[in-house]
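Project standup — Tuesday

K.O.: blocked on the structure for the chain from last sprint. Re-posting the sequence here as requested.
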Amino acid sequence: VQTRSVYCINERTSAMVDESHCTAQGLRKPASQKACNEHPCAEYSVGPFGDCSATCGEGQQTREVFCVGGRGEHIPEHHCRGLTRPHDVRSCQRSACHQVLRYYINDFSLCSRSCGTGTRERRVVCMDLDHNQYPDERCSAFSRPHAVENCNTQPCPGAQSEFLHGY
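H.V.: unblocked you, prediction finished:
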């Protein structure tokens, strides 16, 4: 509400006089108050927070935040300037993640020798289900598969005959 002072003034002297002088001349007293800001005020409207982004551990939830007019219609954001905008993101906590670690193994390589005992190797790595690598200690609940083994253990034909001739 806006308020103003209204007086009856003598036009010749510009002095303030009793209201009866103005009413005697048929003048009606103007209103001393009037309404202002009659248009509906803008405000923020928020939607519900969505599901947590994580299935376990910490994640985030988001929601829509709109500036709306007095009838609930979406209006440009600058109309809500000066108002505190509600958060559209918050953290959420799910139950602790159960990390599953195990050894992943590759196939053995070819044998280093065709006879006379060679070796072959393979990669043995401690990993989680997303294939992130961890130190072997983290997979200590399992026995580590061997990464190297002997192969082609049969003697080479030339080595046998030399051995027999040398005897």
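K.O.: great, moving the ticket to review. The mean pLDDT is 88. Residues 43-93 form one domain.
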